[in-house]
Amino acid sequence: MHTEVNPESPFGGPSVPKRPAAGLLGRDSELDTITGLFRAALAGRAVSAVVAGEFGMGKSAVLTTAGELAEAAGFTVALATASRLETHLSGGVGRQLIEGLTHAPAIPGSPRPRTPHVTEILPDHPPRTGHEQTEALDAFFHAVRHAAEQGPVFLGIDNIHLADPWSMRCLAYIRHRVEHLPVLVVLTSLIGHLQTGEVALLEMSGCTPATILLRGLGTRHVADFLRVPPGRFAEECREVTGGNPFLLGALARRLVPGMEPDTVGSAMIGEVLRVRMHEYTAAPKMLEAVAILGEDASFDLLAQLAGVDESTALEAIDTMVRVHLLTNSHRPALTYRFVRNSVLADMPLTTRAVTQARAARLLHDAGAAPERVGAHLLEATAIRIPWAVDVLRLAARHSVVEGDPELSVRFLSRALEERLSERKRMAILLQLAHAEFHCDPDSAPARVREAIDHIDDRETAAFVATAMILSLCCGPDARLAINSAGQFAARLDAGGPDAVWPLLCMTYLAEAGSRLGPPPDFRDFERQWAPLNDPAAQQSRSGLLALDTVRSGESSANAVRHFGEALSGEQPELFEQPYFFTLATAALADEPALTDKLCQVLDTKRLPWDFHVPKGALATLARGIALQAGGDLVRASVHYESLVRQFDERGATSRCPIAVLCAARLIEVSVDLGRHDVATALLGKIDFAATQALFTHNYLLYARGRLRAATGEPELGYEDLRGCGRRLEHHGMRFPGFAPWRAHAARTALALGRTDAAARLAEEDLDAAGRWGAPRILGGALTTAGLVRETGLGEEAERLLTKAVDVLGGSTAKLALAEALTELGVFQARHGQAEKAIGTLRMAAQSSKHCGARPLARRAAEALRDARTSLTTAKDNEHGLTKQEYRVALMASQGLTNREIAEALHLTRRTVELHLSGAYRKLGITGRTELSSALGRSQRVDAD
Predict the structure, then answer these.
(1) What is the reported pTM?
(2) Which among 596, 613, 616, 595 has a CA at the least distance from the CA of 605?
(3) Full set of structural domains in the chain with CATH
(4) Calpha distance 797→5 (Å, rounded)
């Protein structure tokens, strides 16, 4: 290297050279710091630096390069390397330094005086007496001073933390004695290494050394190191190694094209770390435990897995955190993924598998999530773990819920490695068929056929296939379940109807709920029940009879009777089926005793078959539907809201029929509560197109129609309500209580001025409600008919509204009663019956407020205020007649007939008659002929 004479140097040596541009990758600033100290040393002042970093961060390379630069700058360079295996050799590092000073080439033009041999300075054995120690320390100092008198000296000691105690003492001895000599001391040390000897690092480096902390290489330098273009691959390599050069080199040697960096490990790196940790108590065991547990590495589990007490475990963790092998966090983890992979790669396969199995058991006993336990069981291969099967199945179920069917396949494939009964193997194969169906649909049928081959018990086979139908509830999943059930049924049919009836029952329901058109003919299906005498079979038959009665819409009493028989035993599977549950809860909403029984049947401690549905959700939803039917809107909304949150967390709101039904119910209740913003926000979160294959999409259409009609979009609301009706009619659903779309479509048609359509819908609704006969549904239909009839037939409208109040008065349907009272009160006020209207509207306002129906309560309160105002105004005239009574009486006294008065005032003749009767009573007369004289002055004033 070309150098220039520096006239300012007291030794006339060369000036500080410029460092070659190539240098070390990413270490420019660190080397600049060291070379920046050259000037102070060349000026005759001792300086020092400490280069610290993690294992493999390049401390030795930085020191070597710094020594080369120092030599080029005219320094006498002496380098020494401390070694873990030579720590016990007294004076080992000191000897290397003396040898470096002894053999250093002389500066050109300077005489080369004799330097004492290393054995003269440091004897072969450590000095024992105080006099011997002093002589040895002085000899070391004189050697360094002798070299410094000839020119600047660079003393570099690599891995000072591993140096022998006597060498450390030598360095500490000379440190304050060379302060005015041209000496530069550079030490490298493992970061966080605890000094356990008698000499501290600052005693060897001085009180104010330049501290250089080596960090990992950046992405650009990693790309240069690996000789790859900058980009995602280089960034991933930097992330898994922290940019540590030593780890990067090991990674590069293990990588092959197409391999992901975060999956690579090096057994050699694992061995080096294991050996280096042996000097610390229990550290190797804790290192392996951290690698095995990974993200599950809580402190207590680490200690148990390593087989050490907590005090020892804490000491080992503390040491590894200080040397940056573990992260400094509440949950210990290896700093880099490559290090973890390397520690695992160093473990023998059997040892690793057994340890993973132990970790899985510890996590399971600690109540960890099944998927976390399953992650360790996947690594515990070739080991029999009988208790793991159920955990793996549960983990697979959760993985499907989370949208990761590939992981589910791995869990179930691992479960199949265990020794299994034919029954359990068949169940796992069916579960695997479902998981594979999401990854590779063509492979699922083969799994189903394989499962069928493992049938060794007909009852068990029917149960497992039934469970599959209950688990797979929508879309393509439902078709897979139905097709699989068909294959099972064909295999089981030879055993007679008792062997196949549960499976046929659930298949029938699944078919009915998944079709957009009419369901299978119940009569054909019912013939298969004739020879059955089993009580459970008869109980299921009652349930299906109830369902058929509901669909036909013929008799509420018959449906309730059949449902009661179906609920007479403990058969929850029938009521867990989404299609059956949806219609059963709608029909039983007005039957408190049966609703309670239904909730008891559904409120089981086990998980629902359908993995979309949270535990206890069906009972909660059934209670919410009953509360809504009874008019307790606030409590119903609380039930629905809690469920919708859980369905949202599972990503099932637009996929699961029960979730769609719950969301639709909450939208409807929110409309009645006046919480339109809540209803709109919820509707916006639902993938409407994804729900169209579900039967419960009908209810969602109905709920959206109600929301649109209530928020200023009557035309769109009307179309939604009619769309709901068309789908239900196409499905053969005549039950008017599932989604009372006709009633709201009729009211919306009235608002749009389509009186003929409104009248037709109201008449159809009244006929259907009459056939069904339940008070809540009949009362609602009567209310709607009264509203429609008011436009032309006042007498009939009042009769219908009054009947609605009478029918609902003895029922539990408080909201429906509040609606009927409100409409009747508004009618009475509009037709001059202010006194009656006030009483009716007062009850309506109280009832609607109690239900929480704010829009209805507001309407009733406003109508009540208007009626009171009308009555007050009417009492201001001298006869005590209402305004309308006075006008009708005046026109009658002038000779107009009742028909002519009705036409002129746009009233019905019945209403005219009522006003005249009220006027006669208040005026104290008996007929029309006495009106003129009774009205007296008022008539003459009006005539004028």
Answers:
(1) 0.66
(2) 616
(3) 27-106+114-214 (3.40.50.300), 219-263 (no CATH), 630-875 (1.25.40.10), 883-937 (1.10.10.10)
(4) 118
- pLDDT single digits (tens) 784-793: 999 988 655 5
Please state, in angstroms and as integers, the Cα–Cα distance from residue 492 to each residue in 138, 499, 501, 520, 833, following that order. 99, 6, 10, 21, 71
Measured at the CA of 516, the angle between CA 512 and CA 520, to 5 degrees, comes to: 35
CA distance 115 to 442: 85
Least confident range of 72-81, 496-505, 666-675, 891-900 = 496-505
Cα–Cα distance measured from residue 882 to residue 919, given in angstroms and rounded to the nearest whole number:
9
Q: How far apart are the C-alpha atoms of 848 and 386, rounded to whole Å? A: 59
Q: Are 925 and 934 within 8 A, CB to CB?
A: yes
**How much is the pLDDT for 871?**
65
Contact 115, 143 (CB under 8 A): yes
Which residues pair with residue 51 across a beta bridge? 188, 212
Measured CA to CA, the distance from residue 119 to residue 314 in angstroms comes to 45
The C-alpha atoms of residue 329 and residue 806 are separated, in whole angstroms, by 70
The distance in angstroms from the start CA to the end CA of the chain is: 129
What region does 130 belong to: left with phi over 0, alpha with psi -120 to 50, or beta? alpha
What confidence score (pLDDT) does residue 196 get? 60
State how far the Cα of 182 lies from the Cα of 382, in Å rounded to an integer: 66
CA pair distance 717, 721, nearest whole angstrom: 6
**Residue whose entry in the numeric block shows the structure tokens 């080397």:** 31
- d(CA 51, CA 31) in angstroms, rounded, equals 10
pLDDT above 50: residue 707: yes
pLDDT above 90: percentage of residues in the chain: 50
List alpha helices for 387-534, DSSP H: 388-401, 405-415, 422-439, 444-452, 458-471, 475-492, 497-514, 522-526
The pLDDT of residue 224 is above 70 = yes
Q: Residue 714: what pLDDT?
A: 94
Distance CA 707, CA 681 (A): 11
Task: Convert the pLDDT of each residue in 792-813 to its tens digit.
Answer: 556 788 899 999 999 999 899 9
Q: What is the DSSP string of 865-914?
A: HHHHHHHHHHTTSTT---HHHHHHHHHHHTT--HHHHHHHHT--HHHHHH
Q: Quick one: CA dihedral 843, 848, 849, 851, positive or negative?
A: positive
Contacts 24+ apart (CB under 8 A), 80-83: 80/155, 80/156, 80/157, 80/158, 80/167, 81/157, 81/158, 81/159, 82/157, 82/158, 82/159, 82/160, 82/161, 82/162, 82/163, 82/164, 82/167, 83/159, 83/162
| Amino acid letter, residue 70 | A
Residue 761 main-chain phi, psi, to 5 deg: -65, -40
Range 817-835 average pLDDT: 88
Cα-Cα-Cα-Cα torsion 275, 279, 280, 281, nearest 10 degrees, comes to: 100
Q: Is the pLDDT of residue 6 over 50?
A: no
Taking phi over 0 as left and psi of -120 to 50 as alpha, with beta for the rest, 400 belongs to alpha
Decide if pLDDT at 644 tops 90: yes
| Structure confidence at residue 13 (pLDDT) | 41
Candidate from 200-214, 559-573, 833-847 with smallest mean pLDDT: 200-214
Q: Quick one: average pLDDT of 861-887?
A: 73
Contact by Cβ (8 Å): 837, 868: no
